[in-house]
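Input sequence (260 aa), recorded before submission:
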Amino acid sequence: MIAIGDPVRAGLVPSLARPGANTTGNTILGTEMSAKRLQLLKELVPGLRRVAFLWNPNNGSHLGYLEEWRGLAPKLGLDLLFVDVGSPDQFESKFAAMMREQPGALSVTADPFHMSHVGWMVDFAAKRRLPAMYILKDNVAAGGLMSYGPSIADLYRRAAGYAHKILQGTKPAELPVEQPVKFELAVNLKTAKALGLEVPAARHRRRGRGVTVRENAASRGASPLAHKRRLVINLPATGAGVDDAESAVNRAPLAAEGTE
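Predicted structure, token format:
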């Protein structure tokens, strides 16, 4: 399995450390990134008070999202609006009902069913001038405002390493489910400009059409966020120029120091 949200809650493995049976792979650690995504949204969207969260009632991993978001809301001073969409015919009615509640932003997961309709969602958000946060940077390339999450390409590369070990005779049950070590923040500057949003300024390094900054965690520990990792921030400069792009990441609690 590759880039699974919560394999334990989904019933795929009994634990990450000891997956057992013939199943292993890696996870996107989706729920642990919820606080980070909300903080980044607050940094980019002035006066943000209400955030709509799209979830799939048919996805067992999303129960973890709901629990974490309910706990985060009071700490961040946000009202949360939960939008459950589990079938294609629900998108229009659920999103129409969502807009009647006047959310200031929308957060979308990497749920496969929802991602099969991401083009519709990006178009919906653009027409209604609704800032939207995603997990996958491909959604930003498609016109979404911002994404923050693990590098999917890196997860596939690491899965290939596991496949090699299994082919060499290692039992899947002996390989713990891996967690991400590389994270990416992407902001579509053209979309930000259309929404009247200004990307916060800090140090930057422009590379062709984008800006890239790397950070490395300073320590290891029990928490997945404390593991040593590289954070890549890639902000495509497809719209108006920016003076910098390291943005809100430095102000969020990742216990990391930026390096260039």
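Checked by second reader. Strands lie at 50-55, 79-84, 105-107, 132-134, 146-150, 182-187, 206-207, 210-217, 230-234, 256-259.
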